[in-house]
Fold:
Amino acid sequence: GAGVSQTPSNKVTEKGKYVELRCDPISGHTALYWYRQSLGQGPEFLIYFQGTGAADDSGLPNDRFFAVRPEGSVSTLKIQRTERGDSAVYLCASSAPSVDTQYFGPGTRLTVL
Amino acid sequence: DAKTTQPNSMESNEEEPVHLPCNHSTISGTDYIHWYRQLPSQGPEYVIHGLTSNVNNRMASLAIAEDRKSSTLILHRATLRDAAVYYCILREIMYSGGGADGLTFGKGTHLIIQP
Structure:
């Protein structure tokens, strides 16, 4: 079956611009997670959705970062006024109800010039 | 999630067994031990998890120490495709059987496989 997909696979933007990153989870998965991975580091948790609501957004680094999941399926991570330090691979994962196994997408590589 | 300690890197030969250690001395009674791996240029993938007893699946085996303060991921016959970063993660299981919040990744062990 189809796995988690993320678009775009690569995004290059200029400092100060706004970007949106999209995640399509596995069908039927109620939980959705966003992570950020810098070079040489493990992924860092950003936000977790259960259905449409953000159950835990404690990992968002500041108020420039925001994520939505309006219909409980697709999610969009939004970054305002991008900074060079935002450059990283942004990973999305989803998991089925009552199962603690996360399935990851291939990630979006964001480069802020 | 409680903290884990893993070696930065390990090297092994193709078609030989690989034992990847993980120390988690502060593990609590409700923490499960999960392993994920990340192949180059891919997102992490689930490998295996366990609580107290040793576990086997098609990818690997997980050996858990009797005091649960350490565990070992075992790849029985490593192939070049097993070259990846392996992460050991503790997860507190929720009453519903699922997890909550995000995974806490460390730096993991970079496994190098020599042909």
